[in-house]
Design brief:
Elements lengths: L4 H5 L8 H8 L8 H12 L10 E3 L6 H9 L3 E3 L3 H7 L1
Parallel strand pairs: 1-2
Length: 90
């Protein structure tokens, strides 16, 4: 089995299942859940209420354009080591 009961309980795959996704897109396949990502960003932003507290996303971790659009939409900062990575975000 590709996914565990824990993942299944989180409804990670929404209306799809891993086997359908692999059949449609092939493998290796990376699947991200936008709802979970947005929820985690909002949780992190609410951790502290210090005036200068900011949440940063590392573009080195994943510079997928769609992920970066979500990060930007949620209003958090991106940590980038090059102008190229920064331009992806803009």
């Amino acid at each position: 089995m590709i996914y565990s009961k824990v993942t299944d309980n989180l409804n990670f795959y929404g209306n799809s299942n891993p086997m359908e996704l692999v059949k449609k897109y092939g493998s290796l396949l990376y699947v991200y859940n936008e709802t979970i990502l947005r929820t985690r960003i909002r949780e992190m932003k609410s951790f502290l209420s210090y005036k200068n507290f900011t949440v940063n996303y590392s573009a080195k971790a994943n510079s997928n354009h769609e992920i970066l659009k979500i990060v930007k939409d949620e209003g958090i900062h991106v940590d980038a080591v090059s102008m190229g990575k920064l331009l992806i975000f803009l």
